[in-house]
Structure formats: structure tokens, C-alpha cells
Amino acid sequence: MDTESEPYVRLASLRQLHQVMADMNTARSLADTLQTVADGVVGGLGYELAAVNLVRQDGDLVVAAFAGNSAAESLITGRVGSRASWDRRLNMGETWGDLRFIPHTEGWVLDEDDVPQWHTDGPEPRFEDEWHPADRLLAPMYTPSVQGSCGELIGVISVDRPRNGRRPGAWGREALQMYAFQAAIAISNARLRANMQRALVRLEREQQALRASEESFRQAFEYAPSGMAIAEMGGDQHGRILRTNDALCRLLGRPASAMRRYSFSDLVHPEDIGTLLRTSAEGGRAELRLGRRDGTYVWVSLRNSVVADAADGPRFLLTHVEDIEERKRRELQLAHRASHDSLTGLPNSAELRSRLSARLCQRPQSLPPGAADALDAAYGDHVAGHPAAFDGTGQTFDLHPRGPYDAFDHHVHTVAPEIDSDDGTKGLAVLFCDLDGFKSINDRFGHNAGDAVLIEVARRLSRGVRDGDTVARLGGDEFVVLANGLGKADAQDLAVRLRNEIIQPIRVDGRAMRVGASFGIGWAHCGMTADEVLKSADERMYVEKRSRPKQHRRAG
């Protein structure tokens, strides 16, 4: 290149340089680009050997491409040199612009380092600018910088043995330096394209996974055997149903289009609205009743979870609705069996005592005057000296903050009429009924007939009382009636009416059977226990039974 025909050689070299640069920018992949860079050095810049050493993520440099000698290519391609060894090379020798030339007189110290290298044999140079086989010429490649300075090192092009056998002159150095600059741009672009391709592949895979996940969710939602709904979360439309599956529509008997007009608060039973409002959005569970289209209600179990949106946070409420009507029915049946007599269907002894105890407290009906009475007397209150004020219905409201109940106690006390006289007080009457002549029916006609008689007596007693009164079977042929708000005369009239109902003939298997009934009337008031109340009514029943002639006690 340094002969007298150099201008013509430079023009030819310029055409070759232009061509190899064009080839670099048309390579399809990063590997193709690296090999094109190595081939361009050999084919366009006039060197017999060229290697492209690429910086890895860990900072070391790997021989990524080689050109000029197939034996050398198979030997050193893929081998790695440490970054420290490369930094040592790039900081020694002569600086030719951005190039680094290490003459053989200095490079012998590098023969034993870990940088992959290939030496060619040849004669000793005869001239000063002749190329020595141990000479090294390196062209660092840096990422482009906006301010024109060198950016980050991305690789090094190492060349050997110029074809003319001489060290490159000014034009050869400028051409190699320009080539390394363009190669850095081509490699950076190839890396960018490769990263973009990987990102596009990853994005496509993520989108495919998202579509598959959405399809899986849709199928799980639509074809779930139990009801599912998606509702609005937050804002003015909180709780509004956006989407339901077929199972929920069938459960409630409503089409999907109609369900979108409701929220769960519109469908829940009025008694269960508090349960729904107390159910948390995330992981909340509740058992309540939802309304069907035909006006009936069905017991369901609700389980909530939040469907999160990656951008805006929680967005929707996913509610799982399970039909528990059958389980609730069994629970109610078990509870009914535990609290009711299996033969007559009446409340049993335990249920009777529970209902009676619920009306009683530990406060006695009469207490000595206290501090409240002194205040009442001082202000002339008409209730002074009395521990309770009547409301005219046989109930009293406690005015004394004694015992376990304080001044804020809202318990309605139960009182009883006077025993010796009818003072007009109305209270909770307890009618203890014992059948007369029932044992003889069991003995003569068998227990099946006796059971039929008990069932009919229970029916007649239930028919003869008011709504809200309790008829219970204690066991055997004993029954108890709880009737609130009665005076002494009212209770006696009720006992007479019920006795007259019971003594009417009862037909069992074509036979007419009759039983009598003895009633004892007791009165419940606060300060008594349920057992004490029942014992009192039982004792009065036996007093009443003994007071009547024996022939009047039975009619069976």
C-alpha cells in the first residue's frame, strides 16, 4: 500500500472496505455478524489471520470468530482469555490512534498468559518496517458514545501477517481503526436485534401462557359444578355482579343477563344481610340464604377472593357459591331431634327448660328498699319503695342496679300474681298436665294404641293454645304448657278448656278410647329456676288430682 501506486491501491481498498462494511450490516444474527467481521479483515483489509474476541457478561473475552486458517479456527475458537490479561495487552506497546501494536521485542512476555493466540512461523525481518511473526496488532471495539469518546469495551479484533509482509502504514492503520469502529456498531446492533428477538419470543410465550391461563380460568369458571360470580370491587358499584356461571344461574333460577342487574346484597335474605356485610373481601366465608326467582330462598356457602390487576391493584371480587341446602336441612333435623320429642313432635324436656330459663333471671321478685327508693321518696315518685315498675302486661322493668344486672339492664322481669287473691297481675303460667287412665290403655290395647293416644293429645293441646305459647312433653303421659300474659282466672279457664278437649273420645284402630287429665297451675317469676317452677306446677297438679273423686279422674 505504500508503493508509488498507493492512491490506486487506496481506492481499491476503499471499495473493499465499503463492501465488507455493507456485509457486516446485512448479517442475520450475532454469530453471522461476528464471522463477517473476521472474514472482512482477511478479505477486505489484507491480513492473513483475524480473530474477533467478544466480551462476555463476566468481563472475560472469548474467541467468537476466526478467519484465515481452518486449523487455527478449530483450535482457539471458543477459548476464553481473562479480562486482566487483555487489559494488560491493551496498555502496553505502541498506540496507533485507537489501535495497539505490540512488537515482538515486548510481546515475548505475553507468550505464557491465558489469552488464546496463534503464531505463524517465518523468517526474521530484514527491514525496519517488516512484520515479525511475533508482532501483535489489536483493534479494540467500543460502544458508540454520544460525546465521541470511547464507550464500553465490547471486544477486540486481533490481526496477524499483513499480506504485503510489512507493518501497516497510516492508511492501513486508519482503515483498520475505521473498520473496528463500524464493526462495534454492527455487533451492538446485532446484539440489540438478538435481545429484541429474545424479548419478542419471551413476550409471545408469556402472551400464550396468559391466553392459556385465561382460557383455563374461563373453562373452570363456566363449567364449575358449583356457582361462581365476579363482582365489582370498590367505588359506587361495589358488589355489583358482573359475570356468573351456569351453575349459579341454575341454582337461583335467574338468567345471566338478569343477574348482572343485582348485587349479592339485593339477593340475600333480610335476616342475613348483617352476615353478608361482615364477610371480608379476601378469604371471607359466610353461610346465608339467597333468593331464587320463584321467591324461595336457598342456603349457600359464600367464599370470597380478590382478583388482582397487575397495573391497578385489586379490581374484582371472585365469589364461590356452594349449595348447602341439604346440609342445612340435615342440621335443622338433627337440632329438631335433639330438642323435640320423637313421638309427638313437641318440644322435649330439655327444650322446655331452655325456653323457661330464658325468661327467668336470678333477681328475686321483691327486694328490700335501696338507694333508688330513697331518691324516689325524696322526689315523691309513685314507684318509691318498689323494686320494679309494672308495664300493665304482667312484666316489670328493673329499677335497681343490684346483683349481676346494672342500671343498664334491659331484662324484662317475669312476675307472678298473688297466690291468695287475683290482683289482676298477668304473668307466665305453667300448666302441668298428667293424663288419667293412660296406663290402662297401654295395658289393655298395647303400646301402639298408647302412642296414638299421646299423639292425639299433643295435637289437641297444641290446637287449644295461642300462637307463641309452648306445649311440651316431659315424658310418659306428662305435658307442660307455657302461656305468658295470663291472670289467675285466665289460666284456670285455659286448663278447663284443655281438659275438655282431652277427654273427648279418641279413635284408635276403630275403638273409641278416653283419657282424663289433671292440671296443676304454677307461676314462673324471676328468682326461681326452671326446675323449681316445674316442681311447683307438678305439686299443684297432684293436689288437684287428689281433690277430685277417682271416678272423675279418668274417662277411658
UniProtKB/TrEMBL annotation:
Q: Where is the GGDEF domain?
A: 426-556
Going by the entry's taxonomy, the superkingdom of the source organism is recorded as Bacteria
Q: Which UniProt keywords apply?
A: Coiled coil
Q: Name one Pfam family in it.
A: PAS
Q: Which residues form a coiled coil?
A: 189-216
Domain PAC per the UniProt entry, residue ranges: 284-336
| Entry keyword annotation includes Coiled coil | yes
Q: Where is the PAS domain?
A: 213-272
Query: Which PANTHER family has this protein been placed in?
Result: BIOFILM ARCHITECTURE MAINTENANCE PROTEIN MBAA, DIGUANYLATE CYCLASE DGCP
The record ties this protein, via NCBIfam families, to: GGDEF (TIGR00254), sensory_box (TIGR00229)
Q: What is this protein called?
A: Diguanylate cyclase CdgB
Q: Which organism is it from?
A: Streptomyces lannensis
